[in-house]
Amino acid sequence: SVQSFLADRSFRKFLETHYFHRYLQWKWLEKRPVDKHTFRLYRILGKGGFGEVCACQVRASGKMYALKKLEKKRVKKRHAETLSLNEKQILQKINSPFV
């Protein structure tokens, strides 16, 4: 059958390619926890009532993102904990490892 053919010879050939090696590298990166060393920070894009937004780049992929940094003191001073948590919950629905 086609399935047994692909599972045998073709798959073994794939395991020897650089594509499979690259796939394993990306899977390893996906499992690593996200921390402040995951990103390279660039200039500030804007400031708001609770903190600032700056441009950042994921070191592993080179992709650019906007990073929002909230200052805990400002959030507490303005009694905006609920607002901040609601925003976090909404952003988590996009299923990004960076939220």
Automatic annotation (TrEMBL):
One of its GO terms (cellular component) is cytoplasm. InterPro entries: GPCR_kinase, Kinase-like_dom_sf, Prot_kinase_dom, Protein_kinase_ATP_BS, RGS. One of its GO terms (biological process) is signal transduction. One of its GO terms (molecular function) is G protein-coupled receptor kinase activity. It comes from the Eukaryota. Its EC number is 2.7.11.-. It catalyses: [G-protein-coupled receptor] + ATP = [G-protein-coupled receptor]-phosphate + ADP + H(+). The keyword Cell cycle does not apply. Residues 1-24 form the RGS domain. Residues 39-99 form the Protein kinase domain. ATP binds at K77. Belongs to the protein kinase superfamily. AGC Ser/Thr protein kinase family. GPRK subfamily. This is G protein-coupled receptor kinase. It comes from Wuchereria bancrofti.
